[in-house]
Amino acid sequence: MSAQIALKGGKPVRTTPWPKWPLFTDKDKADLAAVLDDGRMTSITGPKVREFEEKYAAAFGAKCALATCNGVTAIHLALAALEIGPGDEVIVPAHTFIGTSIPVLMANAIPVFVDISRDSFNIDPAKIEASITPRTRAIVPVHLNGLPADMAEVTAIARRHGLAVIEDACQAHGASYRGARVGTLGDVSCFSFFEDKVLTTGEGGMIVTNDERLYDLARSIRSYGEEFVADIGDRKYEHLRLGFNYRMGALPAVLGINQLDRLDEMVAKRNANARYLRERLAKVPGITPPKDFPDRLSAFYKFVCRIDTSVIRTDVLTFIEAIKAEGVPATPRYPKPLPLQKVYREKLGYGKTHCPYDCDKYGVDIDYTRGSWPEAEKVGRDAFVLLVHPSEEEHDLADAAAAVEKVAAFYRS
After folding, report:
1. Is the pLDDT of residue 125 over 60?
2. Which CATH number is correct for 26-260, 3.40.250.10, 3.40.50.1110, 3.40.640.10, 3.40.800.10?
């Protein structure tokens, strides 16, 4: 007889608060105060953003890094620097955060969605080529949940068809594929430093590339399309191209500088936490923890499990609510594939228009409702997230595992 779950009036596994994330050090606070005292708060007037960029490029073995205000703007800048626009198509996974695909619309291009692999949740290379057309300009593989995509296959396809590869590494700081850090495997890569990310500055983003021409274009577009000058006193206010204000400020840059020193340590702790949960949950009937890929080091931004509803007799949202009632954080993982979201399903564009879908340069009637993304749809119905932040210790992980074991046993009975 299984124990009564807290959702049904039983005693919860845990009643104490869950560990906080992110955590900041006394040095972080002192360095932030030093910037406030200095007064140079921007990438134009102060040195901290440039210092962060140089340190980031060195850490990832790249020639160039460019800080932005978030991950979406990083992807938009990458598309803009590649001169992708009206009439172009960009391939993205059907299962990911919408921040991967919205920048394609921001560039007035068309996102074309490809289904994912069941084991990795990442784009399935075997399904990419069927979606390539003469209009395709780029592929955006996402290293989802911190696990690198199969970049050897993706880049081979891209080279055969003359396509750019934009790595969405927004969830994968410090991850590696066959010994190489993600962020160095495509033509350009993009990172996010949102509050709960592996490396966080609260908000922020970064572009990494070895292509100096792309870097120069992105740097100009990042700041109103302005002509680059070495010193603020030399600004001509000459604007050479369409641009935006996507700059990072000095305060988030300070946090990024310090966290880079701790990145490998934080990723190692996330992996240790994930190993504990994987070993415990692999023994639970009806629960599938994330697969281990020996050729890849995951950053474990999220620990994503799946339930087998033929064994566990409830839906994933009820299962999640039951875990939360036990005092353990749990969330769904992108319940609806991107092409079935209203913004794509109804082809919503700028203002009252359907641009870029009705742009004369496109000339194709794309219908997202007729696509086929069975794996993305299935993940949305059966995936749930547990946390493996570096702030968690073994007793916290034991509570998380116990909550899943308890809830799974209840819904199996």
Report:
1. yes
2. 3.40.640.10
